[in-house]
Design brief:
Number of helices: 7
Distance between the termini: 29 Å
Radius of gyration: 18 Å
Strand content: 15-25%
Largest sheet: 4 strands, mixed
Number of strands: 4
Length: 153
């Protein structure tokens, strides 16, 4: 496990020093420790706020394995996953994550995951307003999907 985390650290350090993103790296392995994907934070390079290391590693693993279901995989991350990454990890069916630093460590160097957690806990409308619109039309679309017996993921 330590050697796998070192790979995540090295990848993060490389792209961090190339000004491509922050100090975040991730590795996805199978249960035996075979590496499936290695990625780092590329938010600055891609001008994409979703290009976090965990998301990039999940995208690469899914592409390599030809599936959206990463059951049986383990994720290693240099930092505790943010709420977006946690959601992606859950959607990918990854059941185990090893992380190197915690939320306080990220906050101490200026990252702001805490405001998202605060929103989730308090529904602070100064952070985000969620407003339902055209419910019936959208519900019709959902019902069409269900009627066609489409894959649920």
């Amino acid at each position: 496990m330590k050697d796998i985390m070192k790979i995540a650290i090295e990848e993060a350090r490389k792209t961090m020093n190339e000004n491509k993103g922050g100090p975040f790296g991730a590795v996805i392995t199978d249960m035996e420790g075979n590496i499936i994907s290695v990625a780092s934070n590329l938010v600055l390079e891609k001008h994409d706020p979703t290009a976090h290391a965990e998301i990039m590693a999940i995208r690469k693993a899914g592409e390599k394995l030809g599936t959206h279901d990463l059951s049986g995989c383990i994720l290693y991350a240099t930092g505790y996953p943010c709420p977006m990454c946690l959601s992606a990890i859950v959607w990918a069916n990854i059941k185990k994550v090893y992380y190197g630093t915690n939320l306080k460590d990220a906050e101490n160097i200026g990252f702001r995951d805490d405001f998202i957690y605060n929103y989730l806990n308090n529904k602070d409308e100064n952070t985000l307003k969620l407003i339902e619109l055209d419910h019936n039309d959208c519900l019709e679309l959902f019902n069409e999907y269900k009627e066609k017996d489409k894959e649920i993921y």
